[in-house]
């Protein structure tokens, strides 16, 4: 196979998109959300900077995609909130691991590092959590939905931190069923149980 | 009061120690654990680099102190493990908040950012968690002590992440009693309950 790097700029197809995502993860990790420029990411990917707007609608969209945050309220509604309410947490754990295990945790580390460095990234993450889960949690009709969402976020982000960033064993290499059985009840209580 | 910066290098007293801690938090945040040098931190603090060894025994000790990790197994034994076993988690939440709220979460953010950036910092954190809590958890005689410790670490670090880094409300400004009542039962189950 030909090394695409030797053929100069890539065509505006899926190759370009994948190259931009890989470059974005590197540059966001090195320089954080504020420090990373669209130009620097495009240069690393060896594509035209205009492709960032074309594929991701700008730097924020590229960041969201690079750290696996393209999950929308619609996606969550279909994959998580559809089904029995008392198995909500089981579906959350399964989907969380399906999304993040996929990138070996590198995307999660980028996200955490950005949030720990720049208020803009922390704000994006807050808005993401509220936008994706907030409305549906209120629909459940539980008391204190904001506190529940924040507690839920603390355990879910802590799972990511322990598994992908600190890599604390045996949690880092635990299988999905172990995490469903141990962390599931915590998340279920935060969402619908007695606080 | 005289501005100490105008008097050149600081004397080798508590002032020096405080200046080194403040400088360390800045430089570790900017450059990560591996990137930050003892020389750069001492220069920022306007003290002799030898003071780092004098006060902290080296770069690793300075990092631990800067991110509020100087908690020892002895300290934990006295402040957390002493007392009724079924109130273990209550004491953990209280002590965690007492330690970290103190620096407004800045130290926690430095710690998380370092762990997300450098394997050496992640390893230090793993070793810290295991050293401080591991032995005592095994003393409790519970099953699966390693898994329990990792689950415990995931919720506790997630609390820090949500409160100090993402600053997810209402958790970010929740009072101690609210967090004891909501997160306490989770931690207690991870430590001594049915998994």
From TrEMBL, chains A, B:
Keyword DNA-binding: yes
PROSITE patterns the UniProt entry points to: HTH_TETR_2
GO molecular function terms noted in the UniProt entry: DNA-binding transcription factor activity; transcription cis-regulatory region binding
SUPFAM superfamilies xref list: Homeodomain-like, Tetracyclin repressor-like, C-terminal domain
Residues in HTH tetR-type domain copies: 14-74
Keywords: DNA-binding
Residue ranges flagged as DNA-binding region: 37-56
DNA-binding in keyword set: yes
Pfam families listed in its UniProt record: TetR_C_16 (PF17920), TetR_N (PF00440)
Transmembrane annotation, as ranges: none
PANTHER family per record: HTH-TYPE TRANSCRIPTIONAL REGULATOR RUTR, TRANSCRIPTIONAL REGULATORY PROTEIN
Protein name according to UniProt: AcrR family transcriptional regulator
Biological source species: Kutzneria kofuensis
């Amino acid at each position: 196979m030909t090394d695409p790097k030797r053929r100069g700029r890539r065509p505006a197809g899926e190759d370009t998109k994948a190259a931009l995502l890989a470059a974005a993860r590197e540059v966001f990790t090195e320089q954080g959300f504020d420090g990373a420029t669209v130009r620097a990411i495009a240069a690393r990917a060896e594509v035209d900077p205009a492709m960032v707007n074309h594929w991701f609608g700008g730097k924020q969209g590229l960041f969201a995609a690079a750290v696996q945050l393209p999950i929308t309220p619609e996606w969550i509604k279909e994959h998580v909130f559809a089904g029995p309410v008392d198995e909500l947490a089981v579906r959350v754990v399964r989907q969380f691991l399906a999304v993040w295990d996929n990138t070996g945790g590198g995307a999660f580390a980028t996200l955490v590092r950005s949030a720990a460095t720049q208020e803009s990234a922390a704000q994006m993450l807050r808005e993401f959590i509220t936008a994706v889960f907030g409305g549906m949690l209120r629909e459940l009709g539980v008391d204190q939905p904001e506190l529940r969402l924040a507690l839920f976020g603390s355990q879910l982000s802590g799972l990511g931190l322990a598994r992908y960033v600190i890599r604390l064993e045996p949690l880092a290499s635990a299988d999905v069923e172990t995490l469903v059985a141990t962390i599931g009840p915590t998340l279920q209580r935060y969402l619908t149980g007695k606080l």
